[in-house]
């Protein structure tokens, strides 16, 4: 069952198009990642789902409800973590949790939630005295205090150190495992790769690809690299003829094979077949970050898409197109 | 709706705690008026009726001024920085994302501030009793004047909160209005000692009208129409403008 269904969502601010026909389907109980560069329209999309913004056209359904017309009913069933909000400096952690719990018909126990999110010892600490990471955890806890069926988490781990990020991911998995659907907005590829069951890449106001992180990487056709030092002579031309292999180089006895798809399996099968032992084996996995760069045509983009950028989308890799149709078909 | 009632109770409790944790506003609205009243009342000469003051004592004259001072502090130094700060920080937006309306903040804050002003008034009245100031002799008129004064001043505070882009700006605009309004309330030079023209102008300001109406009803007269109309017009005008201009984000 689809928990979030967005189709042909369009939104312009002062004539400048931000969303240009976004299609999105999030299934029940999954962690869904919405990826995109700054200004790609991630937050606008999510705010339309939360009912904080009204789209110019298109339809949005969350838990089968219209986020604008049935806002009150919907908001009792969703949890929201917003970017760049602060609470009152003098408000204490425990007070904030109890206050927000009082807004919902069937809230979580604020004390349990505080303990779960590592805020147990901070319940009497004022918001103004919290560190960035502690504030972030408090906002996530506030998003969950109403016992929501869907949680919207916008830039989940901004301001957290690497250890805290990993702990947060583990907690978000637990949230998912308890049956909550999570829509995660992020520009951290490693986070989406590690955490999300499925993800969509937003670029130029549209979804240009969606699927599991693995599928996104595969569809982007990004080349990986396999490097090793063979202990016996090896025919490099033969390696180059293997399926998926796109290039072979050798330097000082070290062989580097680049390729896509199952190229690495082919290489190891060949080596095993010849009984060639290799040393110094190193595999550079294709990451979602590589895929993202390929799918959006650039590493990052600070500005909103303008007309020029939109027309240049024909230069993008062709892989984006079949993907978009695939995303439509799943609706 | 029991959830809303529960939420409002929680929010009011939280706002009350936050109010008490903000020492400046809490002190000047709650403690300062009664302390000043006690200081004035401790001086025998100021407890005596004076012909210069139309037969009133200085403490009697200051009682309504201090009641208005409390309202003025809450309206100008309380509401604008708090509400504009909530908007700036995204507190109102965060509330919008939940099932309660952000207007619930007003439903918690305004009664809280009114309650603080009433407590302050009761404290001033109690000290006044000890110092020979009788209870208001025209209680219904006094009540009407007090309610109108609270409406007018709080509406002005809401209007400042509506137009101020940040908590700091709210603080600055509020303070800029606070001092001239203090002047017209007569806290530095009691209204009865100022020239006729200045008093006439004062009657057209919310703080001047509020003090005059409270003083009249305290001493047993009926409130003047001009003062009540001034207060009502400020309440309606500023209230309507605030409602039109207020942005939740």
How many strand elements of chain A? Answer: 13
Tell me the major beta sheet of chain A: 6 strands, mixed
Q: Give helix and strand order of chain A, one letter per element, not per position.
A: EEEHEHEHHHEHEHEEHEHEEHEHHH
Mean pLDDT of chain B: 94
CATH class of the largest domain in chain A: Alpha Beta
Number of domains of chain B: 1
- The number of distinct structural domains of chain A comes to 2
Q: Assembly state here? A: heterodimer
The CATH fourth-level homologous superfamily of the largest domain in chain A = P-loop containing nucleotide triphosphate hydrolases
- Helix coverage percent of residues of chain A? 25-40%
The parts of chain A where pLDDT drops under 50 for at least 5 residues are 300-331
Overall mean pLDDT of chain A stands at 85
**Major β-sheet profile of chain B:** 2 strands, antiparallel
Name given to the CATH architecture of the largest domain in chain A = 3-Layer(aba) Sandwich
- Overall spatial form of chain B: globular
Number of strands of chain B: 2
Verbal overview:
The complex is a heterodimer of chains A (331) and B (249). Chain A is α/β, with parallel strands linked by helices. Chain A has two domains: 2-218 and 296-329, Rossmann fold (3-Layer(aba) Sandwich), CATH 3.40.50.300; 223-285, Alpha-Beta Plaits (2-Layer Sandwich), CATH 3.30.70. Chain A has 13 helices and 13 strands. In chain A, helix 3 (93-101) crosses helix 4 (110-116) and helix 8 (213-220) crosses helix 11 (288-296). The longest helix of chain A has 16 residues, at 162-177. The radius of gyration of chain A is 23 Å and the shape is elongated. The termini of chain A are close together. Residues 300-331 of chain A have low confidence and may be disordered. By secondary structure, chain B is mainly α. Chain B is 78% helix and 2% strand. Chain B is built from eleven helices and two strands, in the order αααββαααααααα. In chain B, a hairpin with a 5-residue loop joins strand 1 (49-50) and strand 2 (56-57). In chain B, helix 7 (139-163) packs parallel to helix 11. The longest helix of chain B is centred in the N-terminal third of the chain and has 32 residues, at 58-89. Chain B is globular. The model of chain B has no long low-confidence stretch (mean pLDDT 94). Classes of the chains: A alpha/beta (331), B mainly alpha (249). At the A-B interface, helix 3 of A face helix 1, helix 4 and helix 5 of B.
């Amino acid at each position: 069952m689809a928990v979030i269904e967005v189709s042909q969502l369009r939104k312009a601010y002062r004539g400048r198009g931000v969303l240009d026909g976004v299609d999105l389907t999030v299934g029940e109980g999954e962690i869904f990642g919405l990826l995109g560069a700054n200004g790609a329209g991630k937050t606008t999309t999510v705010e339309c789902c939360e009912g904080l913004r009204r789209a110019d056209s298109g339809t949005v359904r969350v838990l089968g409800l219209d986020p604008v017309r049935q806002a009150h009913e919907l908001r009792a069933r969703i949890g929201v973590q917003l970017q760049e909000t602060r609470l009152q400096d003098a408000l204490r952690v425990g007070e904030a949790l109890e206050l927000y719990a009082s807004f919902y018909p069937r809230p979580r126990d604020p004390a349990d939630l505080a303990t779960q999110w590592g805020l147990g010892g901070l319940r009497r600490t004022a918001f103004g005295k919290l560190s960035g990471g502690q504030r972030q955890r408090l906002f996530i806890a506030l998003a969950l205090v109403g016992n929501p069926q869907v949680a919207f988490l916008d830039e989940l781990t901004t301001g957290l150190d690497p250890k805290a990020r990993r702990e947060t991911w583990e907690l978000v998995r637990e949230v998912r495992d308890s049956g909550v659907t999570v829509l995660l907005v992020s520009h951290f590829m490693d986070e989406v790769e590690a955490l999300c069951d499925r993800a969509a890449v937003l670029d130029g106001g549209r979804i240009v690809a969606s699927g599991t992180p693995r599928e996104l990487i595969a569809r982007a056709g990004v080349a990986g690299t396999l490097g090793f030092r063979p202990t016996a002579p090896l025919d490099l031309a033969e390696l180059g003829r293997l399926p998926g292999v796109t290039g072979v180089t050798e330097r000082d006895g070290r062989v580097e094979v680049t390729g896509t798809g199952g190229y690495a399996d082919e290489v190891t099968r060949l080596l095993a077949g010849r009984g060639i032992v290799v040393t110094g084996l190193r595999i550079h996995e294709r990451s979602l970050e590589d895929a993202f760069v390929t799918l959006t045509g650039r590493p990052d983009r600070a500005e909103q898409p303008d007309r020029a950028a939109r027309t240049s989308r024909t230069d993008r890799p062709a892989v984006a197109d079949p993907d978009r149709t695939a995303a439509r078909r799943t609706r | 709706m029991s959830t809303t009632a529960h939420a409002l109770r929680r929010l009011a409790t939280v706002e009350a705690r936050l109010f008490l944790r903000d020492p400046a506003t809490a002190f000047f609205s709650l403690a300062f008026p009664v302390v000043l009243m006690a200081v004035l009342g401790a001086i025998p000469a100021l407890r005596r009726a004076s012909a210069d003051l139309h037969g009133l004592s200085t403490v009697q004259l200051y009682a309504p001024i201090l009641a208005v001072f409390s309202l003025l502090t809450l309206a100008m130094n309380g509401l604008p920085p708090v509400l504009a700060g909530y908007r700036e920080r995204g507190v109102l937006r965060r509330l919008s994302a939940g099932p309660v309306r952000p207007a619930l903040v007003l439903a918690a804050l305004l009664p809280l501030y009114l309650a603080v002003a009433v407590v302050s008034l009761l404290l001033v009245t109690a000290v006044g009793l000890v110092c020979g100031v009788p209870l208001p002799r025209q209680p219904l008129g006094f009540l009407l004047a007090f309610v109108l004064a609270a409406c007018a001043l709080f509406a002005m505070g809401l209007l400042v909160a509506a137009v101020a882009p940040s908590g700091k700006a709210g603080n600055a605009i509020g303070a800029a209005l606070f001092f001239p309004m203090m002047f017209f309330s007569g806290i530095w030079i009691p209204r009865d000692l100022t020239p006729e023209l200045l008093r006439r102008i004062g009657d057209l300001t919310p703080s001047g009208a509020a003090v005059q109406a409270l003083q009249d009803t305290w001493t047993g007269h009926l409130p003047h129409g001009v003062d009540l109309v001034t207060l009502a017009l400020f309440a309606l005008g500023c209230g309507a403008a605030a409602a039109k201009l207020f942005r939740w984000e």
